[in-house]
Write a structure and sequence with these properties.
The structure holds 2 protein chains of 2 kinds. Chain A is of the alpha/beta class. Chain A has 5 helices and 6 strands, in the order βαββαβαβαβα. In chain A, helix 4 links the parallel strand 5 and strand 6. Chain A starts with 5 loop residues before the first strand and ends in a 5-residue tail after the last helix. Chain B is an alpha/beta fold. In chain B, helix 1 packs across helix 5, helix 2 packs parallel to helix 3 and helix 6 packs parallel to helix 8. The chains are: A alpha/beta, B alpha/beta. The interface between A and B is medium-sized, with 18 and 15 residues.
């Protein structure tokens, strides 16, 4: 991500806040959305983006957050269903060029791909990593 | 070339940072102030060309700053920053002389485009003739917003000459408002009856409408319904 982009992050939990902080530190414009305003406490003091309290499954919340202007959208709520819905709306309704989502349930990955949404499954990542570790000799 | 001095006034740190960062690539000389009082203090020390001003701030708010700046430094351009859903106060600020407003949240691109537009939009220097010429060029290039701004500047410099009003008519006509356009052409002709372009524009519009090209008279002998 070279140029200065406008990035929307849905869900400001551990992952969302971490992403928002790093993106902001790298000079991008960031908009964080979460249903619970307390979650914005996880944004770092040097976070220079915007945040708004609201339900991202509501069109008005997405509109107000200027999702239509987003270069990238990250869907990182703890609910796979919310992520898939918001990601799809961002892609189809708002025409966001790149939509990336976190999805816990590995079985849902296929659905996302079908919808042109890039996904990362922490479950799969962790499983791969754990299996890889298990194949080594382990700590001495 | 010296860098254009810009002052960013907002009580929220994240907005100040967002704005400063967004403007970095425009190579402006930007300073920040965290409230109205600090803004006025900085304005006394330095000649700013542009202020990005938040309306809602504790203590002296944006509207107060706007009024004060208008009294002392009417040449400074001011862009208002406003929260979502507070267009009314932004409109109020525009009446007080702010050149434009932007609603939070904004993307870096939006803010850059607005700032460059406002800075490009007819510099405050230049006389009537320069602005009329710039308005003609903008109009020829299809940039109605810039053309309008130049016309406004031209009229503010000399309101007794017909060219600017004639151009305003042309802009309105381009926007499809021929009735309002006609009014402006007539004002131009009233200022200087010998100014041919206004007279010709009036004739052209009047003839077009007197010929009744656009008037539906209905069909003779019919009930008004389309029949076979």
């Amino acid at each position: 991500m070279a140029a200065q982009l406008f990035v929307v992050v849905i869900g400001c939990g551990r992952l969302g806040a971490h992403l928002a902080n790093r993106l902001s530190r790298n000079g991008h414009g960031v908009m964080a959305i979460d249903v619970d305003k307390r979650s914005f406490g996880a944004l770092s003091p040097d976070y220079s983006g915007f945040w708004t309290e609201g339900d991202a499954t509501e069109m008005s919340v997405l509109k107000q957050a200027k999702v239509d202007k987003a270069d990238i959208l990250f869907a990182t709520t703890r609910d796979d269903n919310v992520n898939i819905m918001v990601a799809q709306v961002a892609r189809v309704e708002f025409g966001v060029r790149r939509v990336l989502a976190r999805v816990y349930d590995p079985h849902r990955e296929a659905i996302y791909r079908h919808l042109d949404i890039e996904v990362v499954s922490p479950t799969l990542l962790a499983a791969d990593q754990l299996l890889k570790l298990a194949e080594t000799d382990g700590p001495a | 070339m010296t860098r254009t001095p810009v002052l960013i006034v907002d009580d929220e740190k994240n907005i100040r940072m967002t704005l400063s960062r967004a403007l970095e690539s425009l190579d402006l000389d930007s300073d920040t102030a965290i409230n109205g009082e600090e803004a006025l203090a900085k304005l006394k020390k330095k000649q700013y060309d542009l202020i990005l001003l938040d309306l809602r701030m504790p203590g002296m708010d944006g509207m107060d700053v706007l009024r004060k700046v208008r009294e002392t430094r009417p040449d400074i351009k001011i862009i208002i920053i406003t929260a979502h859903g507070t267009v009314e106060s932004a409109t109020e600020a525009m009446k007080l002389g702010a050149v434009d407003f932007i609603q939070k949240p904004f993307t870096p691109k939006e803010i850059r485009e607005m700032v460059s537009n406002v800075l490009d939009r007819g510099s405050n220097e230049g006389g009537y003739d320069e602005h009329v010429e710039s308005a003609r060029k903008s109009l020829a290039g299809g940039n109605l917003t810039a053309a309008k701004e130049h016309v406004r500047m031209a009229i503010s410099r000399d309101s007794t000459r017909p060219e600017a009003l004639n151009l305003l008519g042309a802009i309105l006509e381009r926007q499809g408002d021929w009735l309002e356009a006609l009014k402006q052409y007539r004002s131009a002709a009233a200022l200087d009856p010998a100014y041919r372009p206004a007279a010709e524009n009036i004739d052209r519009i009047v003839q077009r409408h007197e010929r009744g090209d656009n008037i539906d008279l209905g069909e003779s002998g019919g009930s008004g319904k389309k029949g076979s």
